[in-house]
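Researcher: Let's do a round of design. I'm pasting the structure tokens now; please hold your answer until I've finished.
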């Protein structure tokens, strides 16, 4: 039996565009007295989106946790839920790479890699969603926008540039020479950090291609994250 929060989580609005089905997942945090205009009317994925009660409990719990934390359900979750086993594999590896607490890369460093890689691969979803996280962790929305547009011209540090040089070489499948390791070492980054950089770039290059294939659309909430103060939900009366 689903709890009321999970029932609310899957409040769905169905519409058709170019013969594709879109399920709009409404967060339980949405205010009923403040209707929100939806600007992007494309389906969030070209594949059908499952009902939450048909998914394994672990996936239901993860979706609910994301909604509790951010106030909405990222469309990458609903999209990958079309294939539950791949959902589990994708987000397990995501956590290993992006939630890692060892090594010398900060959360901002990791998101910067994702943004630059995704920009090169022209991934709308990942550029928008991870630029939001990069803005939050770096506390520098201007540089985050620059990296999303053209990292080579961005006002980043020499350390960050060394990180992105390796990340982009991996993204482009270029030759990986000792030069990259030596350059990282100048900024206190070792071979294990280089592995992390490469793994993040490689993983998100795959993610970019799958998002492109699915025609995945970013949640509109991502666009303002890290730009404007987070609005607090109204207390229940």
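Researcher: That's everything. Go ahead.
Model: Designed sequence:
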């Amino acid at each position: 039996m689903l709890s009321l929060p999970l029932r609310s989580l899957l409040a769905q609005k169905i519409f058709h565009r170019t013969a594709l089905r879109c399920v709009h997942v409404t967060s339980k945090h949405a205010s009923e007295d403040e209707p929100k205009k939806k600007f992007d009317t494309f389906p969030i994925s070209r594949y059908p989106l499952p009902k939450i009660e048909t998914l394994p409990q672990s996936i239901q719990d993860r979706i609910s946790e994301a909604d509790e934390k951010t106030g909405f359900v990222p469309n990458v979750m609903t999209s990958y839920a079309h294939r539950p086993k791949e959902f589990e594999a994708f987000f397990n590896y995501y956590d290993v790479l992006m939630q890692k607490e060892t090594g010398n890369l900060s959360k901002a460093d990791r998101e910067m890699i994702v943004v630059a890689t995704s920009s090169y691969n022209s991934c709308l979803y990942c550029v928008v969603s991870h630029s939001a996280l990069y803005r939050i962790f770096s506390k520098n929305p201007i540089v985050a926008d620059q990296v999303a547009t053209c990292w080579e011209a961005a006002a980043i540090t020499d350390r960050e540039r060394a990180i992105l040089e390796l990340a982009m070489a991996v993204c482009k499948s270029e030759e990986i020479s000792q030069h990259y390791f030596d350059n990282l070492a100048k900024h206190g980054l070792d071979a294990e950090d280089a592995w992390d950089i490469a793994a993040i770039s490689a993983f998100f290059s795959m993610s970019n291609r799958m998002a492109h294939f699915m025609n995945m659309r970013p949640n509109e909430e991502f666009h303002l994250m890290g730009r404007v103060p987070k609005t607090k939900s109204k207390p229940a009366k």
